[in-house]
Amino acid sequence: MSDIRALVAGNWKMNGTTASLPEAEAVMTRLSAGDFNPNADVMICPPATLLRAMSDRLQGSPVATGGEDCHANASGAHTGDISAEMLKDAGASAVIVGHSERRADHGETDAMVLEKARAAHRAGLTAIVCIGETEAQRRAGETLDIVTTQIRGSIAAGCTGVNTIIAYEPVWAIGSGLTPTTADVAEVHGAIRQELDAHLGADAASGMRILYGGSVKPDNARELMSVENVNGALVGGASLKAEDFLGIIAAYC
Ligand code: PGA
Fold it and tell me: Cα of 238 to ligand 1 centre, how many Å?
């Protein structure tokens, strides 16, 4: 494993109500017990409606919280949208931007994702920028071209290893139970690392975490997390239950 400290982040998506908060508290309790010390940071990104309550309950614990999306502007006439500043105010330390579900459901382009990443930085949040190819693009052999284009379009000067995290999530692996082979993950993560160095300069890109996401489960986490240039995981479905999420975090013990 590399010397970049890993991050295991949960993405609850549009799941969870107040009744789900004990799952987050169970993660906190386990991590605070003293006999379970993974070599990784841990974060949960709940729906915005739960962010304040979850942040309060996890305050001072090893579990950080983040948002799932933000608007590019700090405030204004954008009914239903939430700004990075509001997420920060609700206790978030990071925000996911450019998730493939946002790109697909809301037509988000690389340029829009870049604006959201900039908004995150403006608010003092870490931007977790998601990239990844569709099944058709993978079959057409376009994976490396796609992730390269997405990096060039949605990451720019000002993004550093301190304020930005990349999440490589093959769209076809999300929620499907399918995962790429470890050789494929190694190839893509290696290419992302190279492209970040070329695009941002090695100094700025230094230490930038590259998470893998897409059907990470307790039984495949150790194998996926041991791949070179994989610096953690972005976990959807398996982050909703403390036991599963802890089983993934345990890959770093
Ligand atoms: P999954 O989702 O773990 O349920 O595949 C990952 C994600 O979309 O971030």
Answer: 8
